[in-house]
Amino acid sequence: MVWCAFKQRFLWRPLRRIIISARRHYCGTDKTPHVAIVGSGPAGFYTAQQLLKGHPSLRVDIYEKLPVPFGLVRYGVAPDHPEVKIVTNTFTETARNKRCSFIGNITVGKDITIGELQRAYTAVVLAYGADEDRKLGIPGEDLPNVLSARQFVGWYNGLPQDRDLSVDLSRENAVIIGHGNVAIDVCRILMTPIDTLRKTDISQYSLDQLAASNVKKVYMVGRRGPLQIALTIKELREMIRLPECRTIIHKEDVLDLDKVISDLPRPRRRLTELLHKTGVSPSEKDSKHWATASREWELRFCLSPVEIRAGNAGKSVEGVRFCVNRLEGEDIVNKKAVPTDKTVDIECGLVLRSIGFRSIPIDSSVPFDSQRGIIPNQNGRILGTTGLYCSGWVGLGPVGVILTTMTDGFEKGKLVLKDIEEGRLDNSGKNGRDQALDILKQRGVQVVSFSDWECIDEAECKNGQQHGKPREKMADTADMLKAVCSSTTS
Ligand SMILES: Cc1cc2nc3c(=O)[nH]c(=O)nc-3n(C[C@H](O)[C@H](O)[C@H](O)COP(=O)(O)OP(=O)(O)OC[C@H]3O[C@@H](n4cnc5c(N)ncnc54)[C@H](O)[C@@H]3O)c2cc1C
Ligand SMILES: NC(=O)c1ccc[n+]([C@@H]2O[C@H](COP(=O)([O-])OP(=O)(O)OC[C@H]3O[C@@H](n4cnc5c(N)ncnc54)[C@H](OP(=O)(O)O)[C@@H]3O)[C@@H](O)[C@H]2O)c1
Fold it and tell me: Does any ligand 2 atom lie closer than 6 A to the CB of residue 223?
């Protein structure tokens, strides 16, 4: 025991210190480390925050393909949830740190390669999220007005690539496939009274179309049962209480839930209680408000889409054919949906597919797991590489709220700091931003700095105020570039 403590104190610890200091010397880590982060969503900003906090001189540059920061906080979070967007205040504080630069309007993989970033930076952290959606792979999926929820969200949130999405809201019924929080966001936007939406930062062109919408009924259809639903209680409660909209949860779908409620873990238990109560014995207040509602949404369970049926010689959607599933498996939450030979048809003129997202490869030099749609990594270190990390959805997969992404970003920041501290990374001849900006300058790419973004921000807020909204987003990249005050980085 005493011998072990002696060895630890007088042999191993000094030896470790000598190894770390030699590595630092030979790898040049005594110099200021420069870290590039690709993506300015929550993962990018929280990783940057941790890196700046944990090292006195380290510099961080955040690359973003759009001229504007904040990823899904700007382009995903629903416009009627402004309180969620308060996190951008923390991100702004990080961006204004003298050791941090926002380098916007740069698509990494196209304007600059990962290899070039690796040559300029001590470490490169990929935090570029999950920009694509999963597909169902069924006939009719490419018909007009069969949209991905990802694009629909981008459309109402003013994402430049989705602003021209063709959305037809002229028919009464819509079907949303999926039981997650994105599905319920989309359902709420379709069902919310227009005067409520007018006070949000929803894009004006989508507001105009929603004001003229004929959609009166939304079916939200999941392939498994109420015990496996992926949405959360706050969002369900909000939908149940939505003014002028009735909730339909069929009694027979939820009647037996009370038999298992007490065995469920807490968040799932409360969610299940709400589903049960709403379907079996809704409160007097809810029943009263539903009695006069002009719109309704209906939750349907254990149905998998097998075909989207066309009408009007393939020019429109007529409905969705579902097969009825039964659930198999012991573990309640992980039960599998198994198709039966029964089918159900639901008529509709709009289909929104909300079955999750996936990342895309950024550059041929970065490994990619195309089956899972993520970068293969071990706790954030990208497999088979040195000095290359991933953070947020691109490494975890497209699940988790901002808080989950924050925890991951902090962890990944600590991991990079540890590797720097232990001299694992090559820091020789790395000049970070200056080196990268030279390359971008040679290619004639316009860089948008954080203070440029602040000009865009100011213009958007001013524009919004004229319409009684917190902001009117510019949905055209060219307009954003025109609004910037300068083209030098802050
Ligand atoms: C529709 C929707 C609504 C949501 N609402 C909520 C909510 O209300 N509350 C909540 O807590 N969570 C919400 N979430 C979850 C939350 O948004 C995620 O947890 C979080 O945004 C993931 O962060 P990320 O940084 O990994 O990805 P993202 O936020 O997607 O950020 C990735 C960034 O990388 C950029 N990028 C992509 N490719 C490149 C490239 N090649 N070069 C440079 N930059 C690139 C993108 O433009 C983007 O800015 C929502 C998610 C969605 C999809
Ligand atoms: N307000 C908020 O806090 C908020 C808002 C939006 C998003 N988010 C978060 O962002 C993340 C992504 O949300 P998400 O809704 O895109 O994903 P999600 O929570 O993973 O939900 C995806 C839904 O699609 C279903 N699905 C998947 N593949 C399917 C298929 N082939 N056929 C039929 N259904 C299929 C899933 O069913 P199975 O369960 O059977 O797989 C599930 O119901 C989540 O963590 C979410 O909480 C949060």
Answer: yes
What's residue 7's pLDDT?
Answer: 62
Domain range enclosing 193: 133-357
Q: Say whether 310 sits in a helix, a strand or coil.
A: strand
- How far is 464 from 210, CA to CA, in rounded Å? 18
Tell me what the mean pLDDT of segment 103-113 comes to.
98
Cα-to-centroid distance, 101 and ligand 2 (Å):
33
Distance 170 CA to ligand 2 centre (A): 27
Do residues 258 and 304 both lie within one domain? yes
Task: Based on the fold, state whether residues 434 and 337 are members of the same structural domain.
Answer: no
Between CA 159 and CA 66 the distance in angstroms is: 10
Residue 101 pairs in a beta bridge with 61
Starting from the CA of residue 40, give the closest ligand.
1
| 184 and 201 assigned to the same domain | yes
| Beta-ladder partners of 60 | 35, 100
Report the residue among 86, 138, 182 best suited for mutation to probe ligand 2: largest number of ligand atoms under 8 A from its CB: 182
Q: Is the CB of 373 under 6 A from ligand 1?
A: no
- Which ligand sits nearest to residue 178's alpha carbon? 2
Residue 207 within any structural domain of the chain = yes
Q: Which of 357, 379, 395 is the last residue of a domain?
A: 357
pLDDT over 60 at 418, yes or no: yes
Number of domains in the chain: 2
Any idea which ligand is nearest the CA of 63? 1
Please, what is the average pLDDT of the chain? 93
DSSP state of 30: T
